[in-house]
Amino acid sequence: MHVEAIITNLDTARYKIFRWRVMSTTLQMLSISCLMACITGIMAQIRIPLPWTPVPITGQTFAVMLSGVMLGGFWGSISQLFYITGGIAGIPWFSGFNAGIKYLLGPTGGYIAGFILASAFVGMITDGNIRARKLRLLLPLMLLANFVLIYGPGVLHLAVWNKLVTGRWESMTNLIFAGVLPFIPGDIIKILVSAIVATTLAPKRSIGTEWNLNERH
Questions:
Q1: Can you tell me the distance from the alpha carbon of 103 to that of 89, in angstroms, rounded to the nearest whole number?
Q2: Helix 109-128 vs helix 135-144: crossing angle, to nearest 10
Q3: Which of 22, 57, 71, 197 could form a Cys-Cys staple with 76, CB 3.0–4.6 A?
Q4: E strand spans, the chain
Q5: CA separation for the pair 142, 161 (Å, rounded)
Q6: How far, rounded to the nearest angstrom, does the alpha carbon of residue 142 sit from its chain's CA centroid?
Q7: Cα separation of 194 and 200, whole Å?
């Protein structure tokens, strides 16, 4: 088979998959969102503790970014909401097989809350802009979502948590050192892999009148 034919068949397959996603029922999308929440929980168990910070390196970022592209802004954020509420309800899929509201109130709670914002942002942009599904644009888009929408609330929550635990406000320099700098190399790798996977799966052409969540029955 010629290379051109393989590329055409791959593009057709991607088109059909995403067309199905657009036209899926609410119940189907709820089920897919739960599946993505499970994937986020699995990736959370990839965990590397660091001795100088209470925030470990985890694999969740990969699933968070992918959920936005694969499910769209609305359902991507719903999948992360399922992940958070499921963990609060007792499903042990927070990092280290933890669960409960106490974990969310701990040092990493702000980062986890940012998952909803990041998935929604990436999903809305890629749903509405075909060019954003290409690696050269999707990668910086995911990096922006990660370092602004996840790290922003993450560092803010870490500051409040540290104040409650130690009784004093930590300097911004120390917060960045503890809650940002150690994770930059790993996050870049995870986001690069997520962007490559999403770019491979997402169609680069319009789906009829463009995929729009309002088309779904």
A1: 11
A2: 150
A3: 71
A4: 47-48, 57-58
A5: 27
A6: 9
A7: 10
| CA 150 to chain centroid | 9
Contact at 8 Å (CB) between 32 and 71? yes
pLDDT tens digits along 116-169:
999 999 999 998 888 898 999 999 999 999 999 999 999 999 999 999 999 999
**SS3 call for 47:** strand
- How far lies 100's CA from each of 97, 129, 137, 142, in Å? 11, 38, 37, 28
Q: Where are the alpha helices (DSSP H) in the chain?
A: 3-23, 26-44, 60-89, 101-104, 109-128, 135-144, 151-166, 172-179, 184-201
pLDDT, residue 205, reads: 63
In tens, the pLDDT along 86-122 reads 999 999 999 989 999 999 999 999 999 999 999 999 9
For residue 211, is pLDDT > 60?
no
Is the CATH code 1.10.1760.20 the one for domain 3-205?
yes
Q: What is the mean pLDDT of the chain?
A: 87
Question: Six-digit token pair at 165?
Answer: 């635990």
C-beta of residue 70 within 8 angstroms of C-beta of residue 198? yes
d(CA 34, CA 181): 32
Q: Using 50, 70 and 90 to split pLDDT, how confident is the model at 215?
A: very low
C-beta atoms surrounding 176 within 10 Å: 14
Closest by Cα among 68, 117, 59 to 93: 59
Classify strands 47-48 and 57-58 as parallel, antiparallel or unpaired: antiparallel
Where do the domains of the chain lie? 3-205
Please report, in angstroms and rounded to a whole number, the separation of the first and last CA atoms in the chain: 38
